[in-house]
Amino acid sequence: MSKSVINESEQIQLAIQMINLGARLQLLESQTTLSRERLIKLYKEIKGMSPPKGMLPFSTDWFLTWQPNIHSSIFVNIYYFLIDHAGIEGIVAIMKAYKLYLQQVGGEPNDDAVLSLTRAWTLVRFLDSKMLKTQRCSCCGGNFIVNAYDLHEHYQCNLCHVPSRAGKTKKSREQALQAAALIA
């Protein structure tokens, strides 16, 4: 079977979009048909440096802590809206939801955005595998990321029931206020 130039071009465009959004090499490998060597060359050409090394996030715990939970919940609500109403799915839905998330929190992919594209993709995988789920807050009515195996009767989110040590820095307080306005 011969290679399709059009298909290869589409794969390169997809990889370029993901790299510009901050995707790690493992994410690129899993979502494109391009070789690892080709992806590394492409990454170096776009970013001017080698891709970061190391393992991808593999624990659900990160998504359950105070600030990451709020940002993950914003992303996942956007993602589910796109899935339900825009007729897109897969990595395209994740990328579009991530771009909208960045617009809402005022960040850039290479900024210090709380949620990275790689974490957003990992979050979707955890949701699909039923390790995490969303739960409606009994106080504000927003949907938030929770552990699928915890009890959630009368659940209150991290915005309605702020943990005692949360938001002790000025930057954290400002981001929490912005996030509260988005979810409500």
Please give a structural write-up.
With 184 residues, the chain is mostly helical. It has 2 domains: 43 residues; 123 residues, no CATH class. Helices cover 55% and strands 5% of the residues. It contains 8 helices and 2 strands, in the order αααααααββα. A hairpin with a 6-residue loop joins β1 and β2. α1 packs across α3 and α5 runs parallel beside α8. The mean pLDDT is 88.
Give a quick summary of the entry.
This protein has 184 residues and is mainly α. The protein has helices spanning 5-20, 25-31, 36-47, 61-64, 66-85, 90-105, 117-128, 170-183, and strands spanning 132-136, 143-147. Helix 1 crosses helix 3 (36-47), helix 5 (66-85) packs across helix 6 and helix 5 packs parallel to helix 8.
Write the layout of secondary structure elements.
Layout: H1 5-20, H2 25-31, H3 36-47, H4 61-64, H5 66-85, H6 90-105, H7 117-128, E1 132-136, E2 143-147, H8 170-183
Antiparallel strand pairs: 1-2
Helix pairs in contact: 1-3, 5-6, 5-8, 6-7
